[in-house]
Amino acid sequence: MNRPPSSTQAIPAIGAGPQHVAIIMDGNGRWAKKRFLPRVAGHKRGLESVREIVKACIERGIPYLTLFAFSSENWRRPAEEVSFLMGLFMRALEHEVAKLHKNGVRFRVVGELSRFDPELVELIRRGEALTAGNTRLTLTVAANYGGRWDILRAIERMLAAQPDKRGEFTEADLEPHLAMAYAPEPDLFIRTGGEERVSNFLLWQLAYTELYFTDMLWPDFDAAALDAAIASYRSRERRFGRTSEQLGEQRGEIAPGRARTDA
Ligand code: IPE
Ligand code: IPE
Ligand code: MG
User: What residues are annotated to the active site?
Assistant: First the structure.
């Protein structure tokens, strides 16, 4: 599959739904704390939201969904929580990959996998290989991912690929070396849990993404909440540096004060 063009170059149709939704799934710990449960109970519940949102994206014909599951900074958490998350990821892969495949989902993982248990890496690679030919939904899980790591690695790779181009590199030279080069840039970014920050997620790719923040905690996030985020997205005018009047002209509207005389 060829990489769809950057949305900063090819403008999506006005009123169109998002083609790529990227989510920071935050608030699992607080969800559990509110119920006097251990934090990890929130992560377990969060997996149910993942299932629901994957299904909802398939039903809505959204071709790309990207979920931030573990950041490069999350290693700073208590060792027991990190190992619980790794175990949860393993069990999810063991149980869900066949279902994803049956539903036409292409599964991908982006992030620095070298720090993961080799058994987990093997499961990831097998899942990716099994589902590589699917086209209904590309589900990307960002695991031990950091936006800065991604950009730095892409620069290294770009320099290795074209060592003589120094001084003449363009954005288009770098993009094929980013971890998510197979996907268009996200149209809609959602963060649950109330924090309004990007936390080192897809830094390069979010340049012109519409941002949506909700106080809802990830284990409470469901298809109706996704629809609310999509409705907010649809109400926005994506200008990519242009003026609102220019976009009106593209839509065939006549800008005020600039009535056409040739009609
Ligand atoms: C997000 O929920 C899940 C991961 C980072 C793995 P948190 O665990 O960050 O939940 P809060 O922010 O503490 O509520
Ligand atoms: C961001 O959540 C990463 C994931 C959801 C995987 P955090 O809860 O770790 O983010 P910060 O550190 O509070 O910004
Ligand atoms: Mg958090």
Answer: 26, 74
